[in-house]
Design brief:
The chain is mainly alpha-helical. The protein is built from 3 helices and no strands. The radius of gyration is 48 Å and the shape is elongated.
Length: about 170
């Protein structure tokens, strides 16, 4: 019992620090248009409200000061043209891929039809060979029967002539 108690206490003290997690408050972001709605008075200090962070700028030309100012009509038009160019490039890329897939599909269909024709031809050849084999077996059986009847007549005539001599 003493060993079990010591083991349980040791296990408890080893696992307990794993569950101790320190909660850090999220950094406050000010002067941003994308900040979440203001906190209400109902929330306590222990609750941390998630904050929506602004999107990271994709171009290297944008400076931190440029994020705070509103975009001009020229910049909006330039961004729109760039987005349209990207969309057109993606559409063109998809069109070429679609064309390549259609060509590959047509080639596969042609090869499939060719293989089906070969399969049909081989099936017909198998049927012909089977019928030839059965005809050959029929002829072997007929020849065997003819040889048996002929031997039967020869043996019977030999036995019959031998008995006639004995009388």
């Amino acid at each position: 019992m003493r060993v079990v108690t010591a083991s349980m206490l040791g296990l408890y003290f080893m696992i307990a620090p794993v569950w101790a997690v320190e909660v850090l408050p999220a950094p406050a972001i000010q002067d941003r248009q994308t900040v979440a709605a203001p906190e209400t008075a109902v929330q306590t200090q222990s609750t941390v409200k998630p904050v929506i962070l602004p999107a990271v700028a994709t171009s290297a030309q944008t400076s931190p000061a440029a994020e705070n100012r509103p975009l001009t009509a020229e910049e909006i038009a330039r961004n729109k043209v760039q987005q349209e160019a990207r969309v057109k490039a993606l559409v063109k890329d998809q069109a070429t891929r679609l064309q390549q897939l259609e060509e590959a599909n047509l080639e596969a269909l042609a090869q499939n039809q060719e293989l089906q024709l070969k399969n049909d031809n081989l099936g017909v050849q198998v049927q012909v060979l089977q019928s030839e084999r059965s005809a050959q077996m029929f002829l072997y059986g007929a020849a065997t029967l003819a040889v048996g009847v002929l031997l039967g007549f020869l043996i019977a005539s030999y036995v019959y002539t031998k008995r006639r001599r004995q009388w």
